[in-house]
Design brief:
This protein is α+β, with helices and mostly antiparallel strands. The longest helix is centred in the C-terminal third of the chain and has 24 residues. A hairpin with a 4-residue loop joins strand 2 and strand 3. A four-stranded mixed beta sheet has the order 1-2-3-4, sandwiched between helices. The C terminus is likely disordered. It has five helices and four strands. The structure holds zinc ion.
């Protein structure tokens, strides 16, 4: 659970970690994709919205999002700390707006966008894998 104390120096350390890559859910998605035979690139910051995982062959961009930080419509995503309410509201709203822009820009650039949420990680992974398989059922084991 993330530390939700008022803003301090420690806070900015936490904030940096929030945007850090290679989170546990993300590693889980990568491992599942790999096992399913899909090959991918990571953290393409040159692409709109800097997706966490990119399947170039399928032109699919994947984000693995924590529910709290990315304001998922679920129990955890809707919860807000009562202390520093405005700070958190602003912070999370701006993350949400940035996410939306990223998705829209990626879509406009011809990418299929896919968000896997932390609270339904396994279901999200299954859905993603099924979707990729249906895109090109004869491919998957090899990717450039
Ligand atoms: Zn959620």
């Amino acid at each position: 659970m993330t530390d939700l104390n008022p803003p301090t120096q420690q806070r900015s350390e936490n904030m940096r970690r929030v945007r850090s890559k290679n989170t546990k859910p993300e590693l889980r998605v990568r491992s599942a994709l790999h096992k399913a035979g899909f090959r991918f690139r990571l953290h393409r910051r040159d692409l709109p919205g800097s997706p966490d995982i990119v399947l170039t062959r399928y032109r699919v961009a994947v984000w693995v999002n924590g529910c709290f930080w990315h304001a998922h419509d679920c129990r955890r995503g809707r919860s807000r700390p009562s202390a520093n309410a405005q700070f958190w509201k602003d912070k999370i709203e701006s993350t949400k707006a940035r996410d939306l822009r990223g998705l829209q820009n990626a879509t406009a650039a011809g990418w299929t966008t896919w968000v896997v949420w932390e609270c339904c990680l396994e279901a999200g992974i299954q859905e993603l894998v099924a979707n990729l398989r249906s895109e090109q059922p004869n491919l998957g084991a090899v990717d450039s």
